[in-house]
């Protein structure tokens, strides 16, 4: 089947199929006499494997390792489990980091009056290296204080 058919059958875009071939993640497809790529059922199976791994957030390098393990019938499942566990650990770290970011932004949004005054704890936090939880608004250095009427 041609690349368009392979894309539809596997759920991987034609552009990504070409990229995977170019980077060596998958072997180059056979070519028809017309020069068009010709994908086999085995190629489609491999592309589906890659798509499912990408859906789980594995990097191209990790997928390359997974493909190597998948092809190696003498592998030990412990190797696969180690790679998957490492990926879980990285995902959990990203989740924790994102929760920390959301917490900080929530605190900053709650501390911001959102009124006509120019002082804003959100911008102040972005302007400084302040890492503590003190969200009191300080005038910017060089800012001209306005009198509130």
From TrEMBL:
It is found in: Cytoplasm. Residues 81-108 form a coiled coil. Keywords: Coiled coil, Cytoplasm, DNA-binding, Transcription, Transcription regulation. The keyword NAD does not apply. InterPro entries: CueR, DNA-bd_dom_put_sf, MerR-type_HTH_dom, MerR_fam, Tscrpt_reg_MerR_DNA-bd. GO terms for biological process: positive regulation of DNA-templated transcription. Residues 1-69 form the HTH merR-type domain. Its main location: cytoplasm. One of its GO terms (cellular component) is cytoplasm. GO terms for molecular function: copper ion binding; DNA binding; DNA-binding transcription factor activity. It holds the Pfam family MerR-DNA-bind. This is Cu(I)-responsive transcriptional regulator. It comes from Manganibacter manganicus. The lineage of its organism: Bacteria, Pseudomonadati, Pseudomonadota, Alphaproteobacteria, Hyphomicrobiales.
């Amino acid at each position: 089947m041609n690349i368009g058919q392979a894309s539809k059958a596997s759920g991987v875009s034609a552009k990504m199929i070409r990229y995977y071939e170019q980077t060596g993640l998958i072997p180059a497809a056979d070519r028809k006499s017309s020069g068009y790529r010709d994908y086999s059922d085995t190629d489609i199976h491999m592309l589906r494997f890659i798509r499912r791994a990408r859906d789980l957030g594995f990097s191209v390098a990790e997928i390359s390792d997974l493909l190597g393990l998948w092809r190696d019938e003498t592998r030990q499942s412990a190797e696969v489990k180690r790679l998957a566990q490492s990926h879980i650990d990285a995902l959990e770290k990203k989740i924790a980091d994102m929760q920390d970011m959301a917490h900080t932004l929530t605190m900053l949004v709650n501390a911001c009056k959102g009124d006509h005054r120019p002082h804003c704890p959100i911008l102040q936090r972005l302007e400084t290296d302040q890492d503590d939880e003190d969200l009191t608004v300080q005038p910017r250095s060089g800012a001209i204080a306005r009198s509130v009427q």
